[in-house]
């Protein structure tokens, strides 16, 4: 039963927030009723299929579409010669700042080829099969040139790019004097870590369905942000924002590859306008490897200086990664390295090498996941060199304030995560000697690592309508990537309104709804819960005004702070007999419904009036805000086959208020499993001479399946943070993956005495 005081900070005791409620959209998903972006049955629908480049660098010398055009059912074959140009290119300097294109280069606008798999033609036909067949009949002759392959290419020119303000190329950051501190350090460890290129591979491939009605465009799109996609399309097509509607009711995973606007979306819209019919385009699994970005292949060199007691005195970090021919882009690995441990001297820098590939992008904890792999392995090397327990060395370097900016933490429960994780896992039973524990033929190892993820400042809006039949509709243009946004936001709204969950419906994923941020950087739970909380306050205030001004109402003269709402009945907290239902109050006022709106903030630094005005989150810019956690991993390594199995896992996280115990646990399991995948399996390989991906399918691109994963133990530390947002919620989308690869690598080191610094740790590296 939910019950709510008007100005209560966060959720009421005994409310539904935090409860392990089953997914509200679960039934729709398992019965097929949930509509994904490629599943809208539209009249006159046609199908778009790309024909793609077989070379990685050069020009289109000629292109012949005659055969394809002759096929039955083919409506059009677009190439750079006949597809209408867009109004604004993604790299246009006068582009609006509210969207960031995945890459600056747009295919099908010129004869240039920058990467293999780049679209060279777009066929539109009346069936998918006809379009696919016709696309195979497009004949292209190329003027091919020798491509470059990035950091794996011995000819590659490696250079330090200039940081772009507000851009995606991070720059050199330094505090203190790391070089001098390193020279004086009595203990030093240095090593280079490599991370394979990774692709996101969500279950649902990216899909666009574009429908024009006159000069209005509706796009059903698999995107992590409907507003981002709306801004991108309206800019590139030269349309006012309100003429573009973007709908994403369900998303089958995103992991960052649906967090930017990529070429296929605007090209499909352009094709639909040209043929005068709705066009649906779904990327094939193989095209997913060359259309929506990836995590760049990268090397990191990290050098630690420390005292004999294991206190860090200097951290030097350098990253080198591959980027496309037209954009400078790199994950910002140094940020997490700069704040995880107390250390007065620090420097990070970034180098890149060009490759004939598309631009890389945000991928599952971009920066934090690969960055912690390096620092958390290096910390274990330091611990090993000094004969200190890995957990103990982390405690000796525990950062009581954020070392990157000197600020206090809004909350930090990492010590509790370490302690609880160690207890659940049985860390104290670990034999300190590496390679010394056996079980049958297997070498047994235990490893651990820290996790953290920042609170990225964000704001968004929500609307609440309470109807005179006693139910409510709550709306925000947010995304549910599949992790439970529908469910947790219904819980938040139910408690904030004092209604049972059955009488609340939460709607999302449409640009006609109030604007919410892109679901990226783990901001959705924190931002949207806060917006809903504020909108609910506004709606309740308006309902109460109807009664407090009405002499015949038992609530005549009541003020918001005197009131409690329970099961849709508003009453005086001190005299519960005096009250009436939302329905009765609206009935008396002859209203069918009343509407409240609210803006929510996640993180600090915002001064907009009205944003979280009622929460206690004032002056938050003084604080550094992060979630924290700890992973503990046991592996069995087969010394003859080099095969690694993760046999036990404990993850303990502290992320403020947990909105739903069940969906949160599932999300943490998913993140950790992806981390185990990155540690042991995930890699996209490219042939260095042709610069083509050689394993661009789910048969050859390995991710863990259930048989690879043990029964994992996940817990949360109860944490109250009044600075983050109105609900005290920190995101849990990405933290669960951060540090996982290091925990696995550290366990392998403990099992075998061998340090493998190359991800993924496949069997041949342990032979
Ligand atoms: Mo996430 S990689 O910030 O979409």
Structure description:
By secondary structure, the protein is α+β, with helices and mostly antiparallel strands. It folds into 3 domains: 198 residues, 2-Layer Sandwich (Aldehyde Oxidoreductase, domain 4); 190 residues, Aldehyde Oxidoreductase, domain 4 (2-Layer Sandwich), CATH 3.30.365; 192 residues, Aldehyde oxidase/xanthine dehydrogenase, molybdopterin binding domain (Aldehyde Oxidoreductase, domain 4, 2-Layer Sandwich). A 7-stranded mixed sheet has the order 4-6-2-14-11-12-13, sandwiched between helices. Strands 8, 9, 10, 15, 16, 17 and 34 form a 7-stranded mixed sheet that branches. Helix 12 links the parallel strand 22 and strand 23. Helix 5 crosses helix 6, helix 9 crosses helix 10 and helix 12 packs parallel to helix 13. The longest helix has 25 residues. The radius of gyration is 27 Å and the shape is globular. Bound molecules: dioxothiomolybdenum(VI) ion.
């Amino acid at each position: 039963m939910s019950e709510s005081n008007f100005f209560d900070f966060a959720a009421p005791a005994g409310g539904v927030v935090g409860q392990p409620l089953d997914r509200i959209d679960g039934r729709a998903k398992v019965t097929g009723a949930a509509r994904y972006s490629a599943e809208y049955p539209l009249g006159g629908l046609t199908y778009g299929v790309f024909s793609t480049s077989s070379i990685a660098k050069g020009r289109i010398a000629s292109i012949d579409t005659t055969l394809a055009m002759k096929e039955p059912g083919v409506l059009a074959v677009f190439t750079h010669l006949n597809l209408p140009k867009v109004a604004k290119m993604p790299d246009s300097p006068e582009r609006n700042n509210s969207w960031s294109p995945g890459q600056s280069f747009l295919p099908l606008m010129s004869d240039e080829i920058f990467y293999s798999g780049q679209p060279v033609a777009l066929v539109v036909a009346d069936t998918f099969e006809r379009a696919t067949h016709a696309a195979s009949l497009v004949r292209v002759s190329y003027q091919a040139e020798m491509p470059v392959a990035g950091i794996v290419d011995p000819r590659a020119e490696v250079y330090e790019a200039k940081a772009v303000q507000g851009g995606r190329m991070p720059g050199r950051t330094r505090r203190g004097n790391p070089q001098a501190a390193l020279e004086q350090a009595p203990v030093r460890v240095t090593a280079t870590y490599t991370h394979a290129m990774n692709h996101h591979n969500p279950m649902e491939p990216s899909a666009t369905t574009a429908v024009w009605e006159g000069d209005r465009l509706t796009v059903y799109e698999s995107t992590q942000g409907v507003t981002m996609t709306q801004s991108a399309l309206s800019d590139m097509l030269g349309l006012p924002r309100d003429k573009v509607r973007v709908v994403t009711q369900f998303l089958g995973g995103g992991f960052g590859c649906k967090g930017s606007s990529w070429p296929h979306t605007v090209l499909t819209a352009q094709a639909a306008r040209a043929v005068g019919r709705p066009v649906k385009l779904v990327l094939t699994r193989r095209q997913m490897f060359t259309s929506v970005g990836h995590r760049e292949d990268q090397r990191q060199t990290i050098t630690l200086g420390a005292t004999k007691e294991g206190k860090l005195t200097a951290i030097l970090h350098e990253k080198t990664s591959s980027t496309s021919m037209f954009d400078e882009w790199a994950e910002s690995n140094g940020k997490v390295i700069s704040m995880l441990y107390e250390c007065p001297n620090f420097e990070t820098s970034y180098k890149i090498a060009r490759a004939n590939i598309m631009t890389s992008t945000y991928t599952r904890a971009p920066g934090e996941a690969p960055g912690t792999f390096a620092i958390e392995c290096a910390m274990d090397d330091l611990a090993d060199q000094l004969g200190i327990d890995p957990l103990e060395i982390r405690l000796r370097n525990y950062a009581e304030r954020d070392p990157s900016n000197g600020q206090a933490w809004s909350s930090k429960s990492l010590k509790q995560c370490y302690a609880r994780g160690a207890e659940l896992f049985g860390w104290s039973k670990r034999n300190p000697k590496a390679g010394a524990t056996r079980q049958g033929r297997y070498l047994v190892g235990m490893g651990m690592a820290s996790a953290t993820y920042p609170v990225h400042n964000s704001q968004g809006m929500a609307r609440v309508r309470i109807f005179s039949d006693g139910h409510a509709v709550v709306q925000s243009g947010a995304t549910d990537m599949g992790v439970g946004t529908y469910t947790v936001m219904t819980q938040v709204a139910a408690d904030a309104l004092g209604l049972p969950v059955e009488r609340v419906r939460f709607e999302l994923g449409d640009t006609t709804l109030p604007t919410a941020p892109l679901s990226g950087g783990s901001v959705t739970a924190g931002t949207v819960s806060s917006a809903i909380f504020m909108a609910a306050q506004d709606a309740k205030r308006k309902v109460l005004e109807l009664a407090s001004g009405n002499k015949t109402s038992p609530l005549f003269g009541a003020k918001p702070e005197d009131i409690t709402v329970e099961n849709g009945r508003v009453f005086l907290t001190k005299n519960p007999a005096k009250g009436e239902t939302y329905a009765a109050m609206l009935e008396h006022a002859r209203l069918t419904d009343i509407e409240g709106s609210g803006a929510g903030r996640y993180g600090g630094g915002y001064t907009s009036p009205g944003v979280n005005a009622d929460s206690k989150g004032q002056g938050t810019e003084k604080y550094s805000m992060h979630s924290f956690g700890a992973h503990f991993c046991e592996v069995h390594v087969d010394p003859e086959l080099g095969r690694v199995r993760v046999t036990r896992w404990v993850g303990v996280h502290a992320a403020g208020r947990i909105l739903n115990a069940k969906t949160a646990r599932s999300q943490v399991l998913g993140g950790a499993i992806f981390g185990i995948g990155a540690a042991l399996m995930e890699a996209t390989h490219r042939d260095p001479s042709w610069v083509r991906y050689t394993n661009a399918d789910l048969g050859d691109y390995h991710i863990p399946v259930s048989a690879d994963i043990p029964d994992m133990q996940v817990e949360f530390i109860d944490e109250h943070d009044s600075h983050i947002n109105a609900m005290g919620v920190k995101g849990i989308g990405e933290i669960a993956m951060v540090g996982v690869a290091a925990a696995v690598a550290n366990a392998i080191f403990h099992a075998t005495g061998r340090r493998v610094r190359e991800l993924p740790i496949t069997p041949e590296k342990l032979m």
